[in-house]
Amino acid sequence: MNTSVTDLSSSDKAGISKRHDAAQSIVHGAAELALGLLKDRDSLDIEVKGLQDWVSNADKSVEDTIRAALVSAFPDDGIVGEEHGDVNGTSGFIWVIDPIDGTTNFVNGMPGWCVVLACVLDDHTVSAVIRDPVVGETFEATRGCGATLNGKSIRVSAVDSLDQGTLGVGHSTRVPAGQTLRLLTLLLEQNGLFRRSGSGALDLACVAAGRLIGYVEPHMNAWDCIAAILLVEEAGGVVEPFDMSTMIASGGCVIVASPGVYEQVQGMADDAFKV
C-alpha cells in the first residue's frame, strides 16, 4: 500500500493539494452541521439498517452536504459514500465519505463520533481529514507529507510490548463473535489492555497520535477506515496490506500498529481470524 510522494506527477501533487485544502473546509462545515443536529437529538429520525447498525437523518443530511460541495468543486471526481449510491468520475480521483462514524454514539448523545473524508488516486489514499467536533480535534494527512492533529505533527507510539499500552479492538457483526473473543483472550493473556470507542476511524486516528498502540478489526468498510489508515502510515505506523478496489467494494480486515508491536498484533489477529 505504501506509495512514495515521489511516484506522483506534478499535476497529481497539485490536484491532491487542491483537494485536501477543499476537504478541510468541507469536513469542518459538515462537522458543525452534525454537531448542530446533535443538539436537537430528540428530533432525529433513526432507522435500523441491520444488527447494531443505525442511521439517522443527520447521517444523510451531512453526507448530502459533503456530496454537494464535492460535486460543485470537483464535478469530474468519483464519490463513494455510506448512505447514498456511488458516483463514477473521469478524473481518477475518488472521494470516500463517512458522514458520521460512530452513529450509535451520536444517536445516544455520547461523544466518540466524527466526520470522515478520504480521497483516493490510483488505488491509494492520498488525502484524509477526520473531524471530531465534540472535542475540537482535526486529524489530517496527505500522502508523503506526514500526519497532523490540529496542525501539529503526530507520531505513533514507541512501545515495544503489548503490556505497555492499549490496543483498539473493533468487532463486526459480519464475522463470528468467537473471532473477536479469541483475539481478546490472546491479548489479555499477554497482560494487554483493549478499548473500543464505537468509532473505528477515531480509534485508528488514536493509533496515529500515539494514544493507542494499534487497532484490529476483522471487517471494516472503506469509509470507516481508509482515511485513518493513511494517518497511521504517515505517522510511522505499520499497516497490513490490502487491495483498495476490494476494500471499496466490500470492505476487509484491518490491522495496524506501531512498529514495536506490529508483529505481535498481527500474530494475534492471524490466530484469531484464521478460517
Helix and strand topology:
Blueprint: H1 10-39, E1 46-50, E2 53-56, H2 57-73, E3 78-81, E4 93-101, H3 103-107, E5 114-121, E6 124-132, E7 137-142, E8 147-149, E9 152-153, E10 166-169, H4 177-189, E11 193-195, H5 200-208, E12 214-220, H6 222-234, E13 238-239, H7 244-250, E14 252-257, H8 262-273
Parallel strand pairs: 3-4, 10-11, 10-12
Antiparallel strand pairs: 1-2, 4-5, 5-6, 6-7, 7-8, 8-9, 12-14, 13-14
Helix pairs in contact: 1-2, 4-8, 5-6
Question: What does the model show?
Answer:
The protein has eight helices and 14 strands. It has 275 residues and is of the alpha+beta class. Helix 1 packs antiparallel against helix 2 and helix 5 runs parallel beside helix 6 (222-234). The strands form three sheets. Strands 3-4-5-6-7-8-9 form a seven-stranded mixed beta sheet, with helices on both faces. Strands 11-10-12-14-13 form a five-stranded mixed beta sheet, sandwiched between helices. It has a two-stranded antiparallel ribbon with strand order 1-2. A hairpin with a 4-residue loop joins strand 6 (124-132) and strand 7 (137-142). The chain is globular, with a radius of gyration of 18 Å. The protein folds into two domains: 5-153, Fructose-1,6-Bisphosphatase, subunit A, domain 1 (Fructose-1,6-Bisphosphatase, Chain A, domain 1, 2-Layer Sandwich), CATH 3.30.540.10; 162-273, 3-Layer(aba) Sandwich (D-Maltodextrin-Binding Protein, domain 2), CATH 3.40.190.80.
